[in-house]
Amino acid sequence: MRLLLPDPSDPGAPGPDAAGLDPADVDPAVVYAAAARLPPPARPWVVVNMVASIDGATAVDGVSGPLGGPADARVFSAVRAIADVILAGRRTVAAERYRPPRTPEHLQEERVGRGQARRPRVAIVSASLRLDPTDALFTEAEEAPVVLTVAHADPERRAALEPVAEVVEAGADRVEPDAALAALAQRGARVVLSEGGPALNGQLVEADLVDEVCLTVSPALAGGDSTRLAAGLGAGTLRPCRLASALEEDGFLFLRYLRER
User: Fold this and answer.
1) Among candidates 118, 27, 43, which has minimal Cα distance to 87?
2) Stronger pLDDT, 21 or 194, i.e. the higher one
């Protein structure tokens, strides 16, 4: 995988070149793990990771898989490896058929060396609690997922999930992003990775809670009516970002943006 930015010829630029790596053949896990991520007060650092076609589609036939490839899978694994918690909405969990994270052994060792658990924990946002407690995401997890819900959630559904998940209230009638992140921080999360979907990402952007965006640009045109990376924003929402790094392989671009505050 090629490092395009930061410019490896610039001796003052931070990046893997300083570690003696070849910019023409870098390990994305090294690039993403090397970045500094200092959590703001009272909440974790929030990363959004999504894949999109050239024309901005984030899904084909309702799922993101057709937009990816081997290079994207490597970066997906690298980005997940930096997170303490993987955050996703209920519909994304169902559509993408989430399972417990399959962190490669060498990345598990690196996580332990950084003081993290061997694998990230999963957190699901669901006001309705329409989740199946017999899904592998719950039954095969080494650490019970967190389910972020509302005070008025269905009590029977909550009771069904409580043996296999930690159910946490983060709002009265809707899951409030700031309350959800505060709850995850209380459980030791310093870096939270949001994998969407677009509605969840939109709420995080609208509340100005996104610190970093990892965007994979797939070399394809999709057409259709797929939503974009973050949806449901009010008019006039604009959050300036700066490009921190860029990688390329097989025509895929892997861009990492930092929120300018």
Assistant:
1) 43
2) 194
Alpha carbon distances (Å) from 49 to 4, 75, 77, 229, 258: 19, 10, 11, 9, 12
The pLDDT of 143-149, averaged and rounded, is 98
Give dist(CA 257, CA 179) in Å, integer: 24
User: Which region among 11-15, 69-73, 225-229 has the lowest average model confidence (pLDDT)?
Assistant: 11-15
Tell me the CA end-to-end span of the chain in Å, nearest whole number.
30
CB 236 within 8 A of CB 211: no
- For residues 169 and 162, what is the distance between their CA atoms, to the nearest angstrom? 12
Largest CA distance in the chain: 60
Beta bridge partners of 254: 216, 247
Edge-to-edge strand order for the sheet containing 45-53? 2-5, 241-249, 252-259, 212-218, 45-53, 191-194, 85-89, 121-125, 146-149, 166-169
- Whole-angstrom Cα distance, residue 79 to residue 96? 17
- Coil, helix or strand at residue 198: helix
Residue 64 has which token pair? 């993101």
pLDDT tens-digit readout, 183-232:
999 999 999 999 999 999 999 999 999 999 999 999 999 998 888 899 88
Q: Following CA atoms 55, 61, 64, 69 in sequence, which dihedral angle do they give, to the nearest 10 degrees? A: -80
d(CA 255, CA 203): 22
Q: Tell me how far apart the alpha carbons of residues 217 and 225 are, in angstroms, rounded to a whole number.
A: 17
